[in-house]
From TrEMBL:
One of its GO terms (cellular component) is nucleus. Residues 69-96 form a coiled coil. It is found in: Cytoplasm; Nucleus. Residues 1-36, 242-273 are annotated as: Disordered. It comes from the Eukaryota. The keyword Phosphoprotein does not apply. This is WD repeat-containing protein 37. It comes from Aptenodytes forsteri. The keyword Repeat applies. CDD domains: WD40 (cd00200). WD repeats lie at residues 152-194, 195-226, 278-319, 320-361, 364-404. Keywords: Coiled coil, Cytoplasm, Nucleus, Repeat, WD repeat. Residues 22-31 have a biased composition (Polar residues).
Length: 496
């Protein structure tokens, strides 16, 4: 009888082991359905608050994990047997190989490759499956806590800024690229006053802290101070816009934007000339604000300067220079003579006018792209937002590094606004979203946006009105409308 050579015997053993490996995988696959059914039966008997569809999805994902690791384990056993066979052959020939050392190298290489593939596959599968679950949970929660109350439609172009009056009667102000500023009844959504004194885009609107006077900044290189007199109409029953929020979120096109021509803003009282015009800038005036007390105003311009004016005389008090590129925003402290300016040069600057004889400036370089706005909050904090898709919270007592950083998926527009009493930050985004965070950077909610409500284009600005009984947050965007929201703050903080 012929005798098999060592190589033939080795080949036959390897073939038998591959066949055994194949059979073991078939047995594994054939038992998957039985095992999945058994696990589902076990889960059904357990008390769980998860919907059955969510539980089944999670079960399927963990089943995939188990199968992948089982296959990896079988492959490693096969490799170990091949190493043992090779050691036996070499030992018969008078040679030895450290099987442990060999197995370490080959097993490590194979396991590393398999684990990498497994990790990537699991990440992709898990992310795709669970993102829908998480989104559905957050959308339901947001709609219950954040409700759209009123839409303010009447501008013929995008709205850059929104603001709420600090005195009675409390009205809403909007500044638009259509060269006008409009004042609205918050309750009825009716336009009360139209200001048409500018010959360029109106970029911001701010209300005097004690009088019925407004301050607007414009692309015509001026800022105007003008007086208004309003009589609030009788409130009408408010439609429950939340009933329209059941539809899934969809994408919008420009043709879906509201048509300002059909609104009654054209027949409301018109203010045509300002009380005072501030004219010292050589470029677009992008923002303006009142200093505490309302006797001085500050403006920010694309000519890289900010100017401080005396309101009564219209005289320029200080020209604030130092930014290397166009300014994007300015904001004043609610109780102190402090001003913060932001710029495309990636910095924001803090100007101190508490000492009348001198003014100091501090430069902060915490961002790597355009700083779209920087605003004061309660106490000694500043919140800054940037085109680099971050928002940072700073302590004025130690501005070397932020105390919190919020990372977003879209650029943050001006104007960031902070609910002073509850310390909640409202962030308007390029991608039409408005998100709410606390001062430590924890995300609280996202304002709902469906096919019948919410902004259809870039959201430019947000403004809180903490004491208003109907709407306590307002947003505006380049879809030519402003929106009033009711945020259930206690429920929002409880969800946190």
């Amino acid at each position: 009888m012929p005798i098999e050579s060592g190589s033939c015997a080795s080949a036959r053993q390897a073939k038998q082991k591959r066949k055994s490996h194949s059979l073991s995988i078939r047995r594994t696959n054939s038992s998957e359905q039985e095992r999945a059914g058994l696990q589902r039966d076990m889960l059904e008997g357990q008390d769980s608050k998860l919907p059955s569809s969510v539980r089944n999805t999670l079960l399927e994902l963990f089943g995939q994990i188990e199968r992948e690791f089982e296959n990896l384990y079988i492959e490693n056993l096969e490799l170990r047997r091949e190493i043992d066979t090779l050691n036996e052959r070499l030992a018969a020939e008078g040679q030895t190989i450290d099987g442990a050392e060999l197995s370490k190298g080959q097993l490590k290489t194979k396991a590393s490759h398999s684990t990498s593939q497994l990790s990537q596959k699991l990440k992709t599968t898990y992310k795709a499956s669970t993102s829908k679950i998480v989104s559905s949970f957050k959308t339901t929660t947001s709609r219950a806590i954040c409700q759209l109350v009123k839409e303010y439609v009447g501008h013929r172009d995008g709205i850059w800024d929104v603001s709420v009056a600090k005195t009675q009667p409390v009205v809403l102000g909007t500044a638009s690229a259509d060269h006008t500023a409009l004042l609205w009844s918050i309750e009825t959504g009716k336009c009360l006053v139209k200001y048409v004194g500018h010959v360029g885009s109106v970029n911001s609107v701010k209300f005097h802290p004690a009088e019925q006077v407004a301050l607007t900044a414009s692309g015509d290189q001026t800022a105007h101070i003008w007086r208004y007199i309003v009589q609030l109409p009788t409130p009408q029953p408010t439609a429950d816009c939340n009933q329209m929020s059941g539809e899934d979120e969809v994408e919008f096109s420009d043709k879906d934007e509201p048509d300002g021509d059909g609104d009654g803003s054209s027949d409301c009282p018109t203010v045509r000339a300002p009380l005072t015009s501030l004219k010292s800038h050589q470029g677009v005036v992008i923002a303006a604000d009142w200093l505490v007390g309302g006797k001085q105003a500050v403006t920010a311009s694309w000519d890289r300067t900010a100017n401080l004016y005396d309101v009564e005389t219209s005289e320029l008090v200080h020209s604030l220079t130092g930014h290397d590129q166009e300014l994007t925003h300015c904001c004043t402290h609610p109780t102190q003579r402090l001003v913060v300016t932001s710029s495309r040069d990636t910095t924001f600057r803090l100007w101190d006018f508490r000492d009348p004889s001198i003014h100091s400036v501090n430069v902060f370089q915490g961002h790597t792209d355009t700083v779209t706005s920087a605003v004061f909050t309660v106490g000694d904090n500043v919140v800054s937002g940037s085109d680099e898709r971050t928002v940072k919270v700073w302590d004025l007592k130690n501005m070397r590094s932020p105390i919190a950083t919020i990372r977003t998926d879209s650029a943050v527009n001006r104007e960031i606004n902070v609910c002073v009493g509850q310390r909640i930050i409202a962030l308007p985004h390029d991608n039409r979203q408005v998100r709410l965070f606390d001062m430590s950077g924890v995300r609280l909610a996202r304002l709902p946006r469906s096919n019948r409500q919410g902004h259809r284009r870039m959201v430019c600005c947000s403004a809180w009105s903490e004491d208003h009984p109907i709407c306590n947050l307002f947003t505006c965007g380049f879809d030519r409308q402003a929106i009033g929201w009711n945020i259930n703050i206690p429920a929002l903080l409880q969800e946190k």
